């Protein structure tokens, strides 16, 4: 069952607060009430931050009372994936190893949310260390898909996707290493963006695979995603891989003598898409893709044609090699990143060992769940002497091929359009015993992480009452173009307004 | 390429993970299937291809190496804190 939502978008709420038609405190209270009544069934949150939230909301209302102009999205409730450090909260990363870990500082994205006075309401559930595609690898409990509580919300940012999909609040943050924002966005019927690698600072995000990880927004509308991108993106000296602000923007639009400006992701909204050229890779329209999913993608392509855009089937052969390459490189980086969890400085520790080695082994062996151990073992194996060239270096070469094929495709097409997920949301428990089947969930999404380019998932219809997501992939720095295309689609269709009823 | 049980043992040692015998067996089976699937990349001719480790096409920048004060307390999250240090099992003379 579903209905068209009357819930305000983030920017609508923000404007109502600025105009004095709505107070941030009443909106926050209403949000906590909604969470209280539906969290029992969705289980999207790991912790709530009521006190902090109401304090921020009060500060916003005071500003309005004083006649001050609010910063972007001030007063709007937002949920945070529990792998981002927020001072005053635990950052568990969905792991028993970190279940008592107190955030020692604010992640840069959190500092930015605070500067803009967004109202952070809580931390959301996730697959342990962001490793998984169903949120069932959370050490605490699985999150449910708001459209069907017997199904998975996707993952690893399943909590962040489910709370927006369930209509508990309009915004959340997730992280995407191989599809962890886009696949759950698709499963929960919301909009999810993985920005260009380096757009958003990773400082304060618990590292999984550092060359692939990127933080991004979950929203209902592309417009809200553009506003949230304005808040969270930008160069950060604390992340050496974060892009300089002028990269891909001012370098072409600004004289070198003027100071670098930050891109405004809303500036392209409402542009015409007449003449847009879309490439549709045949590799993602084959037998591996659910027929209901394909049907909705076809519907969307027909819509594009009516708008004066053109599309054609093309080939990106490397989609066939993205999963093997990704599941070599990501675990390799993870095995190195997770070496820091040694039981010495923070996290799980058994405590009665007499040797240092035993202490390490017990802390890690008992603190980590099965999937995390699997990835550490896999990553250590592909990096070990004798296998390094056969797996790791080869996978890095595949990465080069993927990057090259994308570049060639973007010379001919403005965007690549694919289904976000090969399947409709699967049943909880369906894939837990078959890691490889779970990995194949990322078949359409992992390539964008390997190539570094931005990719967006938006709802494009329903099959058997379950949401279907379409993915737009664009060249580096093309977020505002992707968001504009999605925005125009959402102006004439209503899938993003649908919300589950029970 | 096939993986032997002894390879699993070796990797577990390298990665400092304590797992049960049952888990080891399960890991071996899963690793075999996963690595079997990875072999798909051998279909590609990668002879003259350079490896990519980072996707950035633009240079990254390092900040100045400056010492800054922090209010972070190391003790807060320490599983075992002794005096002014992290406590660990003795590493000498055991």
Concise synopsis of the structure shown:
The complex is a heterodimer of chains A (502) and B (94). With 502 residues, chain A is α/β, with parallel strands linked by helices.
Low-confidence region ranges of chain A: 250-260
Large-scale geometry of chain A: globular
Structural class of chain A: alpha/beta
The mean pLDDT of chain B is 91
- The radius of gyration of chain B is 23 Å
CATH architecture of chain A: Alpha-Beta Complex
- Name the CATH superfamily classification of chain A: Amidase signature (AS) domain
- Biggest interface between protein chains, with counts per chain? A-B, 78 and 58 residues
Taking all Cα atoms into account, the compactness measure Rg of chain A is 22 Å
Mean pLDDT level of chain A? 95
- Biggest sheet, spatial arrangement of strands of chain B: 1-2
Helix tally of chain B equals: 2
CATH topology of one domain in chain B: Histone, subunit A
Major pleated sheet of chain B: 2 strands, antiparallel
Strand line-up in the sheet with most strands of chain A:
2-4-3-5-7-6-11-12-10-8-9
What does this structure look like?
The complex is a heterodimer of chains A (502) and B (94). Chain A starts with a strand and ends with a strand. Chain A has 16 helices and 13 strands. Chain A has a single domain (2-275, 414-500), classed as Amidase signature (AS) enzymes (Alpha-Beta Complex). Helix content of chain A is 38%, strand content 14%. In chain A, a hairpin with a 2-residue loop joins strand 11 (455-463) and strand 12 (466-473). The model of chain A is unreliable at 250-260 (pLDDT under 50). Chain A has 502 residues and is an alpha/beta fold. Helices cover 30% and strands 4% of the residues of chain B. Chain B has a domain at 1-44: Histone, subunit A (Orthogonal Bundle). At the A-B interface, helix 10, helix 11, helix 12, helix 13 and helix 14 of A face helix 1 and helix 2 of B.
């Amino acid at each position: 069952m579903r209905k068209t939502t009357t819930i305000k978008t983030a920017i609508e709420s923000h404007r109502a607060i600025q105009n004095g038609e709505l107070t941030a405190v009443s909106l926050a209270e209403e949000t906590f009430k909604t969470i209280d009544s539906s969290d029992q069934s969705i289980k999207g949150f790991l912790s709530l931050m009521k006190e902090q939230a109401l304090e921020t909301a009060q500060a916003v209302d005071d500003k309005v009372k004083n006649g001050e102009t609010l910063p972007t999205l001030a007063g709007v409730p937002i949920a945070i994936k529990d792998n981002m450090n927020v001072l005053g909260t635990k950052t568990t990363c969905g792991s028993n190893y970190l279940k008592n870990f107190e955030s020692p500082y604010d992640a840069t994205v959190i500092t930015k949310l605070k500067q803009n006075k967004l109202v952070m309401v809580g931390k959301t559930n996730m697959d342990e260390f962001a490793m998984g595609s169903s949120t069932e690898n959370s050490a605490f409990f699985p999150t449910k898909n708001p459209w069907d509580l017997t199904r998975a919300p996707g993952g690893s940012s399943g909590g962040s996707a489910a709370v927006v999909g369930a209509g508990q609040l309009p915004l959340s943050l997730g992280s995407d290493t191989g599809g962890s924002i886009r696949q759950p966005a698709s499963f929960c019927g919301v909009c999810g963006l993985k920005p260009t690698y380096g757009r958003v600072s990773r400082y304060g995000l618990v590292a999984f695979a550092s060359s692939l990880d990127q933080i991004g927004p979950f929203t209902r509308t592309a417009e809200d995603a553009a506003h949230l991108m304005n808040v969270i993106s930008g160069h950060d000296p604390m992340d050496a891989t974060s892009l300089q602000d002028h990269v891909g923007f001012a370098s072409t639009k600004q004289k070198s003598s003027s100071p670098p400006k930050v891109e405004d992701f809303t500036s392209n909204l409402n542009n015409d898409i007449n003449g847009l050229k879309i490439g549709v890779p045949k590799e993602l329209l084959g037998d591996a893709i659910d027929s209901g999913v394909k049907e909705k993608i076809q519907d969307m392509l027909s819509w594009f044609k009516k708008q004066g855009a053109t599309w054609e089937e093309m080939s990106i052969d490397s989609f066939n090699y993205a999963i093997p390459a990704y599941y070599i490189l990501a675990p390799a980086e993870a095995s190195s990143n997770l070496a820091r969890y040694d039981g010495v400085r923070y996290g799980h520790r058994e405590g009665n060992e007499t040797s240092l080695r035993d202490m390490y082994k017990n802390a890690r062996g008992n603190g980590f769940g099965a999937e995390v151990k699997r990835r550490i073992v896999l990553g250590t194996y592909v990096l070990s002497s004798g296998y390094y060239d056969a797996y790791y270096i080869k996978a890095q070469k595949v990465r080069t091929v993927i990057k090259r094929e994308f570049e060639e495709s973007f010379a001919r097409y403005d965007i690549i359009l694919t289904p976000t997920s090969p399947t409709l949301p699967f049943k909880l428990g369906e894939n837990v015993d078959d890691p490889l089947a779970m990995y194949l969930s990322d078949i359409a999404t992992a390539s964008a992480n390997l190539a570094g380019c931005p990719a967006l998932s938006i709802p494009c219809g329903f099959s058997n009452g379950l949401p279907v997501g379409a993915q737009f992939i664009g060249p580096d720095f093309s977020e505002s173009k992707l968001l504009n295309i999605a925005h125009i689609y959402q102006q004439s269709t209503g899938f993003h307004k649908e919300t589950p009823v029970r | 390429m096939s993986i032997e049980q002894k390879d699993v043992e070796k990797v577990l040692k390298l990665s400092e993970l304590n797992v049960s015998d049952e888990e080891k067996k399960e890991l071996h089976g899963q690793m075999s299937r996963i690595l079997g699937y990875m072999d798909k990349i051998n279909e590609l001719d990668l002879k003259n291809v350079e490896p990519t480790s980072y996707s950035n096409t633009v240079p990254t920048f390092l900040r100045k190496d400056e010492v800054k004060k922090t209010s972070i307390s190391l003790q807060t999250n320490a599983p075992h804190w002794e005096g002014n240090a992290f406590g660990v099992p003795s590493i000498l003379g055991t």
